[in-house]
């Protein structure tokens, strides 16, 4: 290691500032900590579920600058200056569920719940495209997340029901003159 | 399942990344999308002294047309190949093949350069690079050099990259608008690595006969295979179903993969000619559509 490289990079810890669920958080992290462990252990965002820890199961998916990614395949230092969204951003209050969460409950789109936060976030991402999706399209879009429990049909129903609700709301907003 | 310690470096220029690569050589690894490297780190299959994260290098993230070449920076994310209008227009095989890489969550992070450097023989981008006769651009301490994709992939997860080099871009010749392309793969589930797959680009003359055929085949050997015997046997032939199916058999001797958990050797030999024939058939259909749309 040359002294210049060592001076610039040779430390095992870094301070990072990340925009998480709408607020800026600054923490010192070990450079080898994954984003998933950072969100769970440092920020207590335990909706980020670790199944396989090597990119197969999708249960650790979060939205990174608006795109779904495997948080077990990123380092926390890579989040510096970026925005991360976990399912806690939708609602942590069981009496005030987000329409997507409501649909998962109504359609029984979960059993043990392990894959559910990832499924809910992915649903948020795909229904933002705004168009109605067939069963086959929904199945394709959620195929990156493994559910061991449901057989998927109820999840497909939940995604479609949430999409219909949110498109309805958007249309109603539009009719009311685009109030936000 | 936690990565081992490493010195984390996040240079903002290619020159600095190359300087780090030349300083650390084999003791360093480039971190691009992390979709293959992070699993290797967490499973402790890789223990680099220095990790060189190239995600902050803006110069690696460009997609540009230069005359008859589409140049794609190594750091371009795979999903951008699917969505970018220039890519779909100039090299339409790319978006089609890229959609088969893992799941969208992987393509949101995974990069073009990462897939090429990783050189999995079942991967889609190395296969399209070979079929499209693309050129890989690498930069080392003494400057840049270019390598034909066919020569870049040397064996199982082995490329022509030297330890002190960084892959910076890939240059795809623009596909003539009259050409047809096809990409077909067979995987056990959507998102899994394919058991076998093929990428084809064809040109037909006024009488509808093949004037050029280019086919890359994935999953059947240590590295992507160019189906040269199939290509030369088709030139001058009419693109009939029988001709294509008969000539596609020429790929069978190139299948060197043995039995594994996912498929037997016999099944892969069968699959190889099936995917080759389907990819060429799809390419012919596209070429016909284009010439009818004239
Ligand atoms: C669940 C899952 C399914 C997948 N399915 C498929 C699939 O079907 N098809 C497929 O092709 N891939 C698949 N992949 C792998 C693919 O997602 C990766 O994107 C790709 O293999 C590596 O690209 P990366 O940008 O993530 O590179 P990284 O993981 O960051 O790097 C991979 C290797 O390349 C080296 N490297 C990267 N960039 C450079 C560079 N610019 N210069 C020099 N060396 C470099 C790294 O040091 C490392 O050795 C899958 C991955 C997962 C997790
Ligand atoms: S824990 Fe990240 S994909 Fe399984
Ligand atoms: S509800 Fe149990 S894993 Fe999906």
SSE inventory with pairings:
The complex is a heterodimer of chains A (180) and B (294).
Chain A: H1 3-9, E1 13-20, E2 23-30, H2 35-42, E3 61-64, E4 67-70, E5 83-85, H3 99-106, H4 116-127, H5 135-141, H6 153-175
Parallel strand pairs in A: 1-5
Antiparallel strand pairs in A: 1-2, 3-4, 3-5
Chain B: E1 7-9, H1 14-24, E2 28-31, H2 37-42, E3 50-53, E4 63-66, E5 69-73, H3 78-83, H4 85-90, H5 93-98, H6 104-109, H7 112-118, H8 124-131, E6 135-140, E7 143-148, H9 149-152, E8 153-155, E9 158-159, E10 166-173, E11 180-186, E12 196-204, E13 210-218, E14 225-226, H10 228-234, H11 241-248, H12 265-292
Parallel strand pairs in B: 1-3, 2-3
Antiparallel strand pairs in B: 4-5, 5-10, 6-7, 6-10, 8-9, 11-12, 12-13, 13-14
Bound molecules: flavin-adenine dinucleotide (FAD) and FE2/S2 (inorganic) cluster (2 copies).
Walkthrough of the structure:
The complex is a heterodimer of chains A (180) and B (294). Chain A is α+β, with helices and mostly antiparallel strands and 180 residues long. Helices cover 36% and strands 15% of the residues of chain A. Chain A is built from 6 helices and 5 strands. Chain A has helices at residues 3-9, 35-42, 99-106, 116-127, 135-141, 153-175; strands spanning 13-20, 23-30, 61-64, 67-70, 83-85. Chain A has a 5-stranded mixed beta sheet with strand order 2-1-5-3-4, with helices on both faces. In chain A, a hairpin with a 2-residue loop joins strand 1 and strand 2. The longest helix of chain A has 23 residues, at 153-175. Chain A starts with a helix and ends in a 5-residue tail after the last helix. The model of chain A has no long low-confidence stretch (mean pLDDT 93). Chain B contains 12 helices and 14 strands. Chain B has 294 residues and is an alpha+beta fold. The mean pLDDT of chain B is 96. In chain B, the strands form 4 sheets. In chain B, strands 4-5-10-6-7 form a 5-stranded antiparallel beta sheet. Chain B has a 4-stranded antiparallel beta sheet with strand order 11-12-13-14. Chain B starts with 6 loop residues before the first strand and ends with a helix. In chain B, helix 10 (228-234) packs antiparallel against helix 11 (241-248) and helix 11 (241-248) packs antiparallel against helix 12. The structure holds flavin-adenine dinucleotide (FAD) and FE2/S2 (inorganic) cluster (2 copies). Flavin-adenine dinucleotide is lined by residues 29-37, 54, 74, 101-102, 106, 110-111, 113-115, 117-118, 120, 123-124, 161, 166-167, 191, 193 of chain B. Chain B: Its EC number is 1.2.5.3. Chain B: InterPro entries: CO_DH_flav_C, CO_DH_flav_C_dom_sf, Diverse_Substr_Oxidored, FAD-bd_PCMH, FAD-bd_PCMH-like_sf, FAD-bd_PCMH_sub1, FAD-bd_PCMH_sub2, Mopterin_DH_FAD-bd.
């Amino acid at each position: 290691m040359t002294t210049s490289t060592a001076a610039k990079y040779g430390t095992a810890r870094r301070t990072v500032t990340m925009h998480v669920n709408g607020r800026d958080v600054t923490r010192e992290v070990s450079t080898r900590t994954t984003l998933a462990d950072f969100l769970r252990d440092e920020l207590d965002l335990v909706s980020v579920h670790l199944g396989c820890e090597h990119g197969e199961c999708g249960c650790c998916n979060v939205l990174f600058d608006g795109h779904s990614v495997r948080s077990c395949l990123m380092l926390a230092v890579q989040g510096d200056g970026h925005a991360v969204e976990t399912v806690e951003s939708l609602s942590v209050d069981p009496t005030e569920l987000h329409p997507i969460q409501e649909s998962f409950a109504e359609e029984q789109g979960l059993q043990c719940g392990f894959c559910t936060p990832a499924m809910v976030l992915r649903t948020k991402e795909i229904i933002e495209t705004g168009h109605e999706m067939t069963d086959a399209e929904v199945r394709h879009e959620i195929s990156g997340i493994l559910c061991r429990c449901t057989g998927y049909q109820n999840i497909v129903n939940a995604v479609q029901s949430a999409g219909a609700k949110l498109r309805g709301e958007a249309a109603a907003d539009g009719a009311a003159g685009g109030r936000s | 399942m936690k990565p081992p310690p490493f010195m984390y470096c996040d240079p903002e220029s290619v020159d600095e990344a190359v300087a780090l690569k030349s300083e650390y050589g084999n003791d360093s690894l480039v971190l691009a999308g992390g979709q293959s490297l992070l699993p290797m780190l967490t499973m402790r299959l890789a223990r680099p002294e220095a990790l060189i994260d190239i995600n902050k290098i803006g110069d690696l993230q460009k997609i540009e047309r230069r005359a008859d070449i589409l140049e794609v920076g190594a750091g371009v994310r795979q999903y951008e190949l699917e969505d970018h209008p220039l890519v779909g227009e100039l090299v339409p095989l790319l978006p089609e093949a890229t959609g088969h890489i893992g799941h969208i969550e992987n393509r949101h992070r995974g990069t073009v350069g990462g897939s090429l450097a990783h050189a999995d023989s079942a991967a889609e981008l190395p296969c399209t690079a070979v079929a499209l006769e693309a050129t890989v651009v690498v930069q080392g301490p003494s400057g840049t050099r270019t390598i034909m994709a066919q020569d870049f992939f040397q064996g199982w997860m082995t490329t022509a990259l030297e330890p002190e080099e960084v892959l910076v871009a890939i240059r795809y010749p623009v596909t003539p608008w009259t050409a047809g392309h096809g990409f077909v793969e067979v995987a056990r589930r959507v998102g899994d690595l394919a058991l076998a797959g093929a990428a084809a680009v064809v040109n037909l003359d006024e009488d509808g006969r093949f004037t050029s055929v280019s086919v890359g085949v994935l999953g059947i050997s240590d590295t992507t295979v160019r189906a040269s015997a199939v290509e030369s046997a088709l030139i001058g032939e009419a693109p009939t179903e029988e001709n294509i199916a008969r000539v596609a058999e020429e790929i069978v001797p190139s299948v060197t993969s043995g039995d594994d958990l996912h498929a037997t050797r016999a099944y892969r030999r069968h699959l190889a000619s099936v995917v080759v024939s389907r990819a060429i058939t799809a390419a012919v259909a596209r070429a016909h559509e284009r010439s009818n749309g004239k």
